[in-house]
Amino acid sequence: MSFWPFFSFSLVKSQWNPIKRLMSNSASIIKELEKTPNRRVLSIQSHVVHGYAGNKCSVFPLQLHGFEVDAINSVQFSNHAGNIEYLTLPTRYQHVKGQRLTDKELDELYEGLKLNNINKYSHVLTGYCGNVTFLQKIADVVKDLKNNNPNTRFFCDPVMGDNGRYYTPQELMPIYRDIIVPLADVLTPNAFELGELTGIKIETEQDCLKAIGILHQKGVSTIVVTSGVTGAQTSEFLRCYASIRDGICYRFTFPRLQGQFVGTGDVFASLLVVWLDALNGNIADAVRRVLSSMQLLIRRTSEFAQSEVDSNSQRMCELRLIQSRKELLWPDESIEANIIVDEM
C-alpha cells in the first residue's frame, strides 16, 4: 500500500475547549481524577533507580490516568546509559550498574501470574529489550495473553536505535520483524527503526509512507512514526506520522525544542495507550494530545536544563516528569494535523 498527499486540512480544534473549561472548574477536575477506566497494563521495559527511562517513564503517566500497571523490568540499572548532548555539554553518566532479567526469569514471573489466574490485561506495552531470547519470550507471553483474551491490545515500541545507528544488539531486528511485529496492534518506531524493519532507507515522507504500508501488510493495525524523517522536517519544526490500516494517514507538525532527553519515547508510548483507549481508537486526536503533552514536558525540561547549564550535572537532562503531571493529564496546546489520503 502506498500513500500520496491528495489533500490536507487542519483538524477541528473545538475538542480542546472542554479541556480548558475543565481546568477552570475544580469540581470537574476532581471528578476527572476519580475516573477509573478499568484497564490493566502489563509493561515490560527497562527500569532505572535514578532518573527516567523505560518503566520509570511509562508507569507514572498510566497510573495518573487511572490505569493499573503491572511492571516487569527487562533491566534494572542505577541510571540510564544514554549518551545525550545538551548544547555543547556532554552529560553521559560515567558509570552504569545493575542487572538484566533473563528469559527464564521472565518465564518464571509470568508463570506466577498464570498460576494465580492474575494474567488478565487489557493492554501489553513493551519497550527496551537487551537480548534475543528475552524478546522471544516476550512474544510467547503476548501470544498466551491474546489466546486467553483476543481483545488484549499489544503496544510495541521496537527499541533498536536512532539517528542511523543501533544501540541494542542488531540481532534483535529479525525477531522484531518476523515475530513481534505481526503480533502488534500498535507499533511506535522512529524512522531508523521503521527503515530497519522494512528494508527501506527513510529519508523522505514518501519513504515513510511506503514503509508504513509494508508494516500494515504484516498485520499491524496502527502505526505511529514518532520522529526522524529528516527530509520532512526543518530546523524549526519536526513531524510525526500516524496511520491506520484502512488507508488513512495523518501528518503532525510541531516545533523543534532545544535539547534531547532520554525517555521521551517511553512517555509517548504510555500516553498513546491512554488516549487511544479514551478516544475509542481515534488516532488523530489521540496523537495530537500525546504530542501536546510531550511538547509541554520537553519545554519544561529544556528550560530547567538551560537554567542549570553551568552546573555540569547529568541530572539537568533528566525529564521533569513529576513537575509536568498537570500537562500529562490535560494537554493544553493544539498540534497541526493534516490528513494524507491514499490515492489508490
Automatic annotation (TrEMBL):
Residues 40-301 form the Carbohydrate kinase PfkB domain. The keyword Lipid biosynthesis does not apply. Its EC number is 2.7.1.35. One of its GO terms (biological process) is pyridoxal 5'-phosphate salvage. One of its GO terms (molecular function) is ATP binding. It holds the Pfam family PfkB. GO terms for cellular component: cytosol. Gene3D superfamilies: 3.40.1190.20. InterPro entries: PfkB_dom, PyrdxlKinase, Ribokinase-like. Keywords: ATP-binding, Kinase, Nucleotide-binding, Transferase. Belongs to the pyridoxine kinase family. This is pyridoxal kinase. It comes from Caenorhabditis angaria.
